[in-house]
């Protein structure tokens, strides 16, 4: 809960209208960013109910105040080896429009990091990832101080009907 | 001061459809010559409110059409005309036509006026009126029809707005009748300090040149008669035809000549445009439900009780824990459980509607079809007040229509054959609905010739559904009519018999977790029995354990649960185990295998087998353990995820965990199991249609 309070605090400090805000999180020492407007809440890891014959990155479903919400392990989604879940494992609940349907999903990440305001111009174009499956998931790259943050295209990342999923 | 009328559209459409339903049911019941006045009045009233409403909202296509209908009804009501079968048929057709028009308007499409104009022509021929099928057509064209110029003084009383009337609409409607010139008088408008924004201070004088009768003008102002001073006078026309009217109307001294009056004011066109744009604004297509006030009241009572129980519990919570508080707490919790169950039942009742909503369409259907087939049919409706879930109701009506058509077409004989068989020439079709356990049962009975088992058998052999040497009981033969691609009709008619019928009926009903059966006796008749769960939102489930996972099997599909007698299991093919249970062979599906779970018990003699049935196809599901039975609320897994094969939905258990509900027919498909004997049975059907 304290995480959420901090987050709200930071949100207020950094409220600027002409820039997009991104929530960033850590995964395998890389920092990734999500459009903060897509983020519904941040929860701790809890046991899930497995969904039969689901791809490996779909960990299962949880009951989020009466709604059934699937939980996705982003590490596995990107083909990074999974780590064991502990009390510090974080689930970011996002609401994304996928193929004209608003879907609520939970993302398992290593840790929530920060909130940045990033102007659209600063976001660098994505290098040509044509050959890589993961390329289409990236919306842009941006430098914040010394670090590089990968901004994600959630609609693509969470589109479970895409070709890549069907093949895997 | 303009109200966005579009917010009332939905109410108007709903009321209009109800009005049309009322008209239809009265019309179907009418026996020409013996009709009573009240029936005609009911029909007239329905038509009148549709006309009024559509006029108010600017749906002229509907109001124009209803107008001729109403005129005819009015004459019948006043005894000027005899009601004949021809009129009844025509009126029924116009009910259909109006429904189509309104549907189109509701969907914000431009309605197709062809049928309406044709019907209108017929009505006008009856009424002896000239055809004015194109009311807002070319007004410049010199017509032979006599035109009159009317002077209309319209002086609304201050409270006009409060009665919900908008002069703008009346004026624009007036403008559609012909050429109009408008003068507005605003001398009554007071000083700004005295001005009440919700009062009307304006009055108008119109000069209208039109080929319409004075009654058409009066009609526009019909709704505000009591709220305004209205005088309508003839003041001359291009083809002077005032002689007939001048007796009742004093000629007025008017400065304007008819030619001046012809000039169409530009302002009026703008008004019309405004109305047009309002019409096109998006009216939200909300799916509403009408709930009886008694149901709402009882809900409020329940909530009241719930609040009291909650207060009691929180009071106990504040006290120190002693023996007595624990007893009180237990009592309170029991009461809470009681309240919650009551509340749940009552909330479900809100979605419940009497089945008469579906039944009411059948009198018309039966009447039309029996006329077409030259059969005499009496339709009996029983248990019309039986309630079922709105969603179920919407989905059950198409299959029912199909079954009723079938009974009329194939079941009932033509009168001559009935007489020859010693039966009443009038056949009977009975629709009966009643509750049984947690299900609603709908029976469709006819006293016709019954199913011809010999022919069904022959057909099934021809189609390769069964082998010629197979011995089948007559019930088993009757079951064959639900197979895909089966039709015994000697010739294909437009009523039934395209061979895409009964299997679709069965599939649609199964999609609602229901079942359909047929029983039949030659020469006596046949009965189709549909069984449906009362609601789609809640399901009686058996919780089972597979490895460390809990699944829910719908109780309705469970035949029995048993421990496996290993000596009766034999292995078929590579990896399919089959259990001999009495005289049946039940394939064993290992749930952990199909769902790809590790850690389940694999030894057959240590597990339990739940025998389930779907599509008349029994399979055994291997589970580790049976847990509790309970009612579960069905939640969508698809909403945030996607369709999962073998799973129909999810639910939340008492401890807050998610549990998945097994979809038996999906599971059978997933397992790749085929019904022995007929390979194509479980292959998915494409391109189905409900005939």
UniProtKB/TrEMBL annotation, chain A:
SUPFAM superfamilies: CheW-like
PROSITE patterns found in the cross-reference section: CHEW (PS50851)
A family per Pfam: CheW
Subcellular location(s) of the protein: Cytoplasm
SMART domains: CheW (SM00260)
Keywords carried by this UniProt record: Cytoplasm
PANTHER family tied to this protein: CHEMOTAXIS PROTEIN CHEW, CHEMOTAXIS SENSOR HISTIDINE KINASE-RELATED
Entry protein name: Chemotaxis protein CheW
TrEMBL record, chain B:
All copies of domain Histidine kinase, residue ranges: 243-536
Record domain HPt: where: 1-105
Catalytic reactions on record: ATP + protein L-histidine = ADP + protein N-phospho-L-histidine
Top-rank lineage group of the source organism: Bacteria
Molecular-function GO terms, alphabetical: ATP binding; phosphorelay sensor kinase activity
PROSITE patterns: CHEW, HIS_KIN, HPT
SMART domains: CheW, H-kinase_dim, HATPase_c, HPT
Any one GO CC term of the record: cytoplasm
GO BP of this protein: chemotaxis
Span of domain CheW-like: 538-673
Function statement: Involved in the transmission of sensory signals from the chemoreceptors to the flagellar motors. CheA is autophosphorylated; it can transfer its phosphate group to either CheB or CheY.
Name of the featured protein: Chemotaxis protein CheA
Species assigned in the record: Pseudoalteromonas amylolytica
């Amino acid at each position: 809960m304290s995480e959420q309070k901090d987050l709200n605090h930071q949100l207020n400090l950094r409220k600027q209208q002409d820039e997009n805000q991104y929530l960033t999180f850590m995964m395998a020492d890389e920092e990734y960013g999500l459009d903060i407007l897509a983020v519904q809440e941040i929860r701790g890891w809890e046991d899930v109910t497995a969904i039969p014959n689901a791809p490996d990155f779909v960990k299962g479903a949880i009951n989020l105040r009466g709604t059934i919400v699937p939980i996705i392990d982003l590490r596995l989604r990107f083909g990074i080896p999974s780590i064991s879940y502990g009390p510090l494992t974080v689930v970011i609940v996002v609401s994304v429009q996928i193929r004209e349907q608003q879907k609520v999903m939970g993302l398992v990440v290593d840790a929530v990091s920060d909130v940045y305001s990033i102007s659209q111009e600063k976001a660098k174009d994505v290098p040509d990832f044509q050959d890589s499956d993961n390329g289409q998931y990236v919306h842009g790259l941006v430098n914040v101080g010394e670090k590089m943050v990968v901004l994600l295209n959630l609609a693509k990342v969470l589109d479970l009907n895409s070709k890549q999923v069907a093949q895997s | 001061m303009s109200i966005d009328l579009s917010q009332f559209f939905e109410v108007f459409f709903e009321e209009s459809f109800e009005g049309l339903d009322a008209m239809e049911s009265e019309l179907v019941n009418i026996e020409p010559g013996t009709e009573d006045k009240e029936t005609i009045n009911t029909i007239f009233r329905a038509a009148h409110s549709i006309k009024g409403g559509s006029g108010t909202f600017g749906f002229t296509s509907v109001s124009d059409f209803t107008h001729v209908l109403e005129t005819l009804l009015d004459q019948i009501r006043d005894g000027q005309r005899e009601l004949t079968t021809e009129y009844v048929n025509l009126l029924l057709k116009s009910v259909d036509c109006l429904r189509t028009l309104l549907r189109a308007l509701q969907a914000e499409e431009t309605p197709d006026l062809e049928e309406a104009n044709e019907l209108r022509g017929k009505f006008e021929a009856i009424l002896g009126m000239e055809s004015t099928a194109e009311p807002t057509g070319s007004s410049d064209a010199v017509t032979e029809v006599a035109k009159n110029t009317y002077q209309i003084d319209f002086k609304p009383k201050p409270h006009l707005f409060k009665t919900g009337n908008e002069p703008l609409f009346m004026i624009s409607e007036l403008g559609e009748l012909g050429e109009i010139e408008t003068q507005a008088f605003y001398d009554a408008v007071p000083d700004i300090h005295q001005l009440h924004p919700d009062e009307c201070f304006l009055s108008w004088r119109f000069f209208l040149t039109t080929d319409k009768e004075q009654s058409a003008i009066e009609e526009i102002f019909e709704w505000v008669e009591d709220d305004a001073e209205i005088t309508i006078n003839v003041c001359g026309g291009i083809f002077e035809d005032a002689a007939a009217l001048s007796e009742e109307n004093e000629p007025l001294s008017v400065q304007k000549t008819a030619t001046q009056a012809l000039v169409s004011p530009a302002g009026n066109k703008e008004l019309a445009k405004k109305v047009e744009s309002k019409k096109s604004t998006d009216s939200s297509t909300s799916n509403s439900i009408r709930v009886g006030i008694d149901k709402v009241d009882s809900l409020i009572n329940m909530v009241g009780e719930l609040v009291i129980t909650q207060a009691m519990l929180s009071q106990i919570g504040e006290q120190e824990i002693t023996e007595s508080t624990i007893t009180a707490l237990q009592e309170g919790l029991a009461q809470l459980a009681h309240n919650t169950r009551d509340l749940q039942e009552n909330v479900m009742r809100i979605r419940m509607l009497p089945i008469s909503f579906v039944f009411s369409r059948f009198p018309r259907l039966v009447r039309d079809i029996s006329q077409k087939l030259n059969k005499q049919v009496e339709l009996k409706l029983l248990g019309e007040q039986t309630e079922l879930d709105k969603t179920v109701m919407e989905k059950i009506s198409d299959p029912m229509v199909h079954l009723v058509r079938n009974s009329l077409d194939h079941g009932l004989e033509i009168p001559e054959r009935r007489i020859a068989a010693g039966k009443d020439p009038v056949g009977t079709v009975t629709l009966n609905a009643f509750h049984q356990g947690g299900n609603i049962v709908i029976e469709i009975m006819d006293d016709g010739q019954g199913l011809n088992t010999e022919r069904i058998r022959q057909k099934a052999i021809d189609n390769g559904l069964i082998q010629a040497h197979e011995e089948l009981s007559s019930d088993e033969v009757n079951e064959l009519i639900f197979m895909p691609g089966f039709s015994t009709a000697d010739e294909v008619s437009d009523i039934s018999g395209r061979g895409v019928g009964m299997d679709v009926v069965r599939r649609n009903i199964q999609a609602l977790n229901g079942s359909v059966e047929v029983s039949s006796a030659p020469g006596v008749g046949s009965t189709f029995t549909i069984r449906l769960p009362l609601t789609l939102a809640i399901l009686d489930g058996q919780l089972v354990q597979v490895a460390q996972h809990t699944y829910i099997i719908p109780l309705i599909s469970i035949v029995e649960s048993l421990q496996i007698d290993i000596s009766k299991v034999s292995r078929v093919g590579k990896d399919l185990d089959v259990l001999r249970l009495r005289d049946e062979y039940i394939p064993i599906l290992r749930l952990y295998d199909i769902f790809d779970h590790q850690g389940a018990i694999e030894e057959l003699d240590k597990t339990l087998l739940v025998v389930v049935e779907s599509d008349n196809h029994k399979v055994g599901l291997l589970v580790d353990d049976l847990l509790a039975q309970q009612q579960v609320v069905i939640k969508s897994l698809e909403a945030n995820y996607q369709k999962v094969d073998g799973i129909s939905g999810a639910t939340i258990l008492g401890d807050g965990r998610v549990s998945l509900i097994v979809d038996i027919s999906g599971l059978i498909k997933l397992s790749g199991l085929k019904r022995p004997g007929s390979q194509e049975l479980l292959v998915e059907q494409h391109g189905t249609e409900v005939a």
